[in-house]
Design a protein that fits this description.
The protein is mostly beta strands. The protein has strands at 10-14, 17-24, 29-35, 51-58, 60-65, 71-75, 79-82, 88-92, 98-105. It has one domain: Sandwich (Jelly Rolls). 0% of the residues lie in helices and 52% in strands. The strands form two sheets. It has a six-stranded antiparallel β-sheet, with no helix packed on it. A three-stranded antiparallel β-sheet has the order 6-5-8, with no helix packed on it. Strand 2 (17-24) and strand 3 (29-35) form a beta hairpin. It is globular and about 35 Å long. The relative contact order is 0.29.
Length: 108
């Protein structure tokens, strides 16, 4: 087992989206995305062989499927399953900062 502290996560920006990559192995990845109200993160092109989940830890977001254009609204406590190959982007439509955790596997 291994603990990864927030201070030890790899931090990057995808547009205005603050991304923290906590864990990445050959079987799974886990991280978080933070967006301020009104911000839209970068487009993730999807993963060829992997499923990914988005869990709304805080806030109110819309996740748009870049292929179909369909939008999925998530509020605190909601989870979205994203199947392989589905491009997606997150927009914070709430009035507070949003925090989304994401996890997927197997790693492409």
């Amino acid at each position: 087992m291994k603990i990864v502290k927030k201070a030890d996560a790899k931090v990057s920006l995808d547009g205005p989206e603050v991304v923290r990559d906590y864990c990445r192995t050959d079987k799974i990845w886990f991280g978080t995305s933070e967006l301020l109200p009104g911000q839209t993160g970068g487009v993730d092109p999807g993963h060829p062989i992997s499923h990914e989940t988005f869990f709304a830890c805080r806030g109110h977001v819309v996740v748009r499927n870049g292929q179909s254009g369909k939008c999925y609204e998530l509020q605190e406590g909601d989870l979205l399953l994203i199947e392989e190959g589905e491009p997606h982007e997150i927009t914070n439509i709430g009035s507070e900062p949003a925090l989304i955790s994401w996890c997927g596997g197997p790693v492409d």
